[in-house]
Description:
453 residues, alpha/beta, eight-stranded parallel beta barrel, globular
Amino acid sequence: MSPVNRLQEIPTRPFHYAGAQDRDLLCDRVPLSRLVRAYGTPLYVYSATNILGRVRLFAEAFAGMRATVCYSVKANSNLSILRLLAAADAGFDIVSGGELERVRQAAKSSLRRVVFSGVGKTAAEIDAALAARILVFNVESPAELDLLEQRARHLRKRAPVAMRVNPDVFAATHPYISTGMTEHKFGVAIGDAAALYQRAARSSYLTPTGVSVHIGSQIRSAEPFGQALQRVVQLVRELQSSYGIQIRHIDAGGGLGISYQADDAPQQGKRPANAESFDPKAAVLEYAQQMRVALAGFDGELLLEPGRFIIAQAGALLAQVLHTKRNGKKAFVVTDAAMNDLIRPALYQAYHSILPLRRQQDRPSAVVDVVGPVCETGDFFARDRELAALDAGDFLAILDAGAYGMSLSSNYNSRPRAAEVLVEGNRHRLIRRRETMRDLLAVERTFLNGGAE
Ligand code: LLP
């Protein structure tokens, strides 16, 4: 039985309070206080059950269609997580030779389910992907099509090709992660695609097999996905009827959003004004329905590239409070995690719920900024947030950090990166050890007195 079928229930909230008087925050059945004692902080914790549950939501929502989830590796590329997803029959969406190598290391047999996206593939990356016999190259420009043909000829291989088309569809999200309009760098204008397909069809080294589209990330409404796909289906029909080019798959990209505010609810026993309810099952069903309508009459395979929806809510970043302080009217909670561990608030003004690992009913709430030790004012996790008062030594969890948390982390301020732990039921395993200064310094060289060592 596949790990997906093994699941009896899909907890929508992997992080929840339980224990005496519901005081302790757990991931699945593991108290997080146990994990911070065992592994230290900052610490990323993920629920395997929740990750697999999200894959199953996709499988159920797309039942009856030939649909394959190609998990977007950039969201979280830990080898154990890739292996977990491969065991659940997922394919992978990659954007670099590095991500290709991760898939190879985690699950070699999944290489044939890899789609390779990205506006700037190098010759070396293309060569590696050709040698790995991936499923398809999502080509984003005429120049890339030329390069792909040249490399395929050189290696005497045939490259499967999908043009990534830019459908010029507006989708409401943060401007940094909106990709589906002509002003963005991604894809080729949908009107220019037919000529490129003809070019590919004429080549002995290229085989047009698909069309791909990706309109952006953290998109909360299903409609733009349907609109984009309708334009793609029109193109597929034109390719078939006008040029006899058969398209076997449509890749709808990723982008399905989540709610970052729904988990504030358990914090103080009352729902803050900004909390909303979020039903992931309803979200993916509505998304699938849009696709089903748009794809009516297309009998090929549908590829999907979700990242955030699969893993964001399965993960939290745990931190310890180092100090609390006041500057004038402002109160600050300084944690041992910082923007180098989770940059989303700094980069996209993103909201993440913050919960204490131990709830104390008698503590008053206070309006605080939760900040890290990095030397930038942009180093914050929350601003002017009402939280149950936190003291030095307390631990907290920054929720919905499973996607684009660890994968966007850095060593800024020479801070070794956090450890990662995967929880399944009542078990927990370290899936990435904490970095040490030795790791950081290992790749550097010093030149003494101006001469090389
Ligand atoms: N496919 C392609 C071609 C992509 O560019 C992306 C994300 C995905 C799939 C997955 O999208 P998702 O399902 O995760 O929305 N760092 C930002 C998000 C960047 C998304 C980049 N591309 C954030 O933390 O919000």
